[in-house]
Design brief:
Largest sheet: 6 strands, mixed
Strand content: 15-25%
Number of strands: 13
Radius of gyration: 30 Å
Order of helices and strands: HHHHHHHEEHHEEEEHEHEEEEEHEHHHH
Distance between the termini: 46 Å
Number of helices: 16
């Protein structure tokens, strides 16, 4: 077959007007309108003066730099160097910047200076989506995902490993100092690069050793990012963070539903215990409304969380972490409680009476109920229910036992099971999109505050993608 004629000397490949370079419904146009619509209060929260300052050399418009960063995160471009290349080579970025080409230093300085206020943009995206009236606020899902930090796992050391490393570093420094103290010429005014690097490492190791040996300090610390923890994800254990998100559904007529992040957070903890209530507080702060029904997995389950949610009338669909243990016919759940007698009755009909309070280090106190040793030994279920021939079966009951039992009854209903099946479809595709499409498999910054700002900007970009879908839907309907 013949070949199409082509030449690199062709003229007029692009339109003569920059405005004609992108389609009318291109997402980059929504990003530009979103930035232009920010209020004076929101610019102030970002510590940006939109009109610039009268003195000094002309600077890039902060609205341009902000829009470039937002569209970059929406496109999975989170590096300032890659953004600089995109502003020089990619049509949407060229249109967004008006043909200007800020270098990576300019982009980085802007991001470094203003990223602490990115939560303002996140809240604005939620408010923008809310104007559509299509967000389902009543049911939201909360979940966490493990994301690697800008640090190597093998740089996380305990006290013994830090002490050994400190010995090696001090020996290396002594050797370098000996090499740089000749008898002839005087020592240079500045330390040689290798010695200066070793000195900085010694300072970091000493500081880390002081923290892990402190009475209330961590057991181990990462030298590269001291605030990163060891977290286990699908690809093994990494030095990173537990990134939390709350998600609501957006019902778009005639197409698949979209999703809106309503709260985000970053914690160094390896699991999700204790994170549900703070996330619900963030949802309230972002949306200005409560959540009637919360969907969460078993990693968030604990008595205090269940009791507090029940006290404020908030439905929580959340299985227990040890769900399989409930199938045991002699699980504590199958022992009937009599409040008047303050006693339990086992499945075989024997009484367990209150015997005292058990105090545990760093854990809530438990009330202990125990049967009679002779009765337990004579019971046909002995060796199955308990093997304690000296004291008999014991139950440890916490302060939230009544709330936990009520929650188990709720979770056994068909309504709760139907709601529970919605959780995965609501929140897990969001994490897949953030990691695969926006490139958020690894944080680029270090330190919890910086990582939290980065995660917030990732969530803002994800919400902007949802807002773009709403905007495009409105354009088609018009």
């Amino acid at each position: 077959m013949p070949l199409r004629p082509w030449t690199r000397d062709r003229e007029g490949v692009l339109p003569t007007k920059l405005e004609d370079w992108v389609a009318a419904d291109h997402p980059v146009r929504f990003v530009a309108a979103f930035v232009e619509g920010l209020t004076d209060e929101e610019w102030a929260a970002l510590e940006i003066v939109p009109g610039g300052h009268p003195g000094g050399a002309p600077a890039y418009d902060p609205a341009v730099l902000l829009a470039v960063w937002l569209y970059g995160f929406m496109s999975g471009v989170r590096s300032c160097r890659k953004l600089a290349v995109a502003c020089a080579e990619q049509v949407p970025f060229l249109w967004l910047s008006g043909g200007q080409r800020p270098d990576h230093n300019t982009l980085w300085r802007f991001y470094q200076r203003h990223r602490g206020g990115m939560h303002v943009l996140f809240k604005r995206t939620v408010a923008t989506a809310a104007t559509s009236g299509l967000v389902v606020w009543a049911i939201q899902a909360v979940d966490g995902t493990k994301i690697g930090g800008n640090a190597a796992k093998d740089r996380t050391l305990d006290a013994a490993a830090l002490a050994k490393l400190l010995e090696r570093v001090e020996a290396a420094i002594a050797d370098l100092e000996a090499q740089n103290r000749p008898d002839g010429p005087p020592t240079p005014p500045r330390l040689p690069a290798e010695l200066a690097q070793a000195e900085r490492l010694r300072v970091r190791v000493r500081a880390a050793l002081d923290q892990v040996t402190a009475p209330d300090g961590p057991t181990r610390l990462n030298l590269t990012d001291p605030e990163a923890g060891l977290v286990k994800g699908r690809h093994g254990v990494v030095a990173g963070y537990n990134a939390q998100a709350a998600v609501a559904r957006v019902d778009l007529p005639g197409t698949r539903p979209a999703r809106l992040l309503t709260a985000v957070a970053v914690v160094p903890d390896a699991d999700d215990h204790g994170q549900l209530l703070p996330m619900l507080a963030r949802v309230d702060a972002t949306t200005g409304r409560g959540v009637a029904t919360v969907l969460a997995d078993g990693g968030y389950h604990d008595g205090a969380t269940v009791a507090i949610c029940a006290a404020r009338g908030q439905r929580v669909v959340m299985p227990e972490a040890q769900q399989s243990a409930l199938a045991d016919p002699f699980h504590k759940e199958h022992f009937a409680y009599d409040p008047a007698a303050d006693a339990f009755t086992c499945p075989a009909g024997h009484a367990l009476t209150f015997r005292g309070i058990k105090a545990r280090t760093a854990r809530p106190m438990m009330r202990v109920y125990r049967g009679t040793a002779a009765v337990c030994r004579a019971c046909p279920h002995f060796r199955v229910c308990t093997t304690d021939a000296r004291q008999g079966r014991a139950l440890e009951v916490g302060a939230h036992e009544a709330a936990l039992r009520a929650h188990r009854s709720w979770m056994a209903t068909e309504e709760a099971q139907t709601l529970a099946r919605q959780r995965k479809a609501l929140v897990e595709p969001v994490f897949g999109m953030l990691k695969e499409e926006l490139g958020a498999r690894r944080f680029l910054l270090r330190g919890r505050a910086n990582v939290a700002a980065e995660w917030t900007l990732v969530a803002t970009a994800a919400n902007l993608r949802t807002c773009v879908r709403l905007w495009q839907h409105d354009r088609l309907a018009a």
